[in-house]
Amino acid sequence: MSLKIDQDHSRFRGIVRGKIRENLKKYIAQGELIGRKGKDQVTIPIPHIDIPHFTYGQKQGGGAGQGEGDPGDPMGGDPQEGEEGSGKKAGEGAGEHSLEVDVTLDELADILGEELQLPNIEDKGKSRIISEKDRYTGIRRVGPESLRHFKRTYREALRRQISMGNYSAERPMIVPIPDDKRYRSWKTQAEPVANAVIIYMMDVSGSMGDEQKEIVRIESFWLDAWLQKQYKGLESRFIIHDAVAREVDRETFFHTRESGGTMISSAYRLCATLIDNHYPADEWNIYPFHFSDGDNWSMDDTLLCVDIMKQHLLPRVNMFAYGQVESPYGSGQFIKDLREHFVADDRVVMSEIRDRDAIVGSIKEFLGRGK
Questions:
Q1: What one-character DSSP code corresponds to residue 146?
Q2: How far is CA 303 from CA 79, 316, 343, in A?
Q3: Shared-domain flag, residues 329 and 213
Q4: Are strands 235-241 and 348-353 parallel, antiparallel or unpaired?
Q5: Same-domain check for residues 153 and 6
Q6: How far apart are CA 321 and CA 220, in angstroms?
Q7: Which residues fall within 8 angstroms of residue 327, CB to CB, at 6 or more apart?
C-alpha cells in the first residue's frame, strides 16, 4: 500500500511539474509567485487537475440504448433547454477552480533551468572557508538509540532466532536482544564551501516608474531562485541610486519612491566598496546586477562608469549583468555606450527588457552562459 501511495504521489508531482512548465512564462510575466514565497516553498496556482477515474451511474437507472424513446431524442433533461433564446437557470455544477500546490524553491529552479535550458554554473573554485559535515557511512554495534537502524536490527534478530531454532513461521515473533542491535555510524568530513553574493543595483530616479520596478522585482526573484540552487547560503545586497547611491534592505529596494537626476557611477563606486570590504574575490563568486532605464547624467559620468568596471569590478566578478528596462521617459543610451566599450568582453552581459513578456528572454541572456 505504501509503495502504491508513493507511486501515485510521484505521478501527481510529475503532472504538477508539467503544468508549471506549461504555464511558466505566464507565471513569470504576471508575477503570480512573488508574495506567495515562503521560507523554503512557493505556493503556485495551477489549473484544476482531475485524475482519471470511473464514474458509476445509479443502479437500475438504465443507460445508452435502453428504455423508451426514439433515435435522436435527448437523453434526459428538458428538450427545450439549450435552445436559442432560452434563459439559463442557476447552475448546480462545479465551475473552474485553481489548485494551489507547494513547490520548493529547488524544484522551481529545476523547472526554470529545464525550460530555459540553463547550464549549471561553473564555479570559479572552492573558497578557503571550510565547512564540517557529518555523513552516515556505515553500521556499528553501539550507538545512541536515536540512530538505531531498524531493518538491520530486525534482520540480526531474525537470523539469530532461525539459527537457534526459535523462529516459528506460524507465530512469528521477533524480539531483539542487545547483541542484535545495529546503529548508524557517521564520519565528520571537512569540505570547502563555495560562497556567492548578488549585488543588485537599481536606478530609482524619476524616470523609473512602478511598472519598471515591478519588472526588476520579478526578474530578481527568478535570478535568486536559480543562483540559490547553484550555491548554498547565497547572500544578496541592495543598492539604489539617483544622483547618489546608498545601500538598503530588500523591502526598500523594491518599494522606494525617488526622483531627481541620475549618476550611475555612484552605484558602481559603492558596489566596488562592498566587494573590497566584504567579499574577497578569491573566496566569493560575485554577481553584480544593475537595472536602469538607460539615462545617465552625462557622458563624463558614463566614461567614469566604464573606468570603474574595468579597474575595480570586472577583475573580481564572475560576470557583470546590466538590464535596461524600457521606460517612456528614458533615453536608453547607456546600454549603447556599454556595448561600444565591452562588446568583446564576455564578462559583461547586457539585456534589454521591453516589458514583462521579455523577462524570460532576459533571464536566459543573463544565466545562459553558466558563469
A1: G
A2: 79, 20, 15
A3: yes
A4: unpaired
A5: no
A6: 12
A7: 207, 208, 209, 212, 293, 294
% of the chain surpassing 90 pLDDT:
32
Domain assignment of residue 33, given as a range:
2-49+98-116
Rounded to 10 degrees, the C-alpha dihedral 250/244/31/219 comes to -90
What does the pLDDT look like over 195-248, one tens digit per residue? 889 999 999 988 888 888 889 988 988 888 888 888 877 889 999 999 899 999
- Does this model's pTM top 0.70? My answer is no
The whole-angstrom separation of Cα 26 and Cα 15 is 18
Q: What is the pLDDT of residues 310-334, one digit of tens each?
A: 999 999 999 999 999 998 887 889 9
Q: Phi/psi of residue 42, each to 5°?
A: -125, 135
Q: Closest Cα to residue 34, out of 215, 199, 204?
A: 215
Q: Which three cell numbers stand for residue 190?
A: 571537512
Which residue reads 574575490 in cell numbers? 281
296-302 long-range contacts, Cβ below 8 Å, gap at least 24? 296/262, 296/263, 296/264, 296/333, 296/334, 297/243, 297/261, 297/262, 297/263, 297/264, 299/337, 301/263, 301/264, 301/265, 302/264, 302/334, 302/337
What is the CATH number for 311?
Answer: 3.40.50.410
The pLDDT of residue 92: 52
Domain count, the chain: 3
241: cell is 541610486
Task: Compute φ and ψ for 17, nearest 5 degrees.
Answer: -60, -40
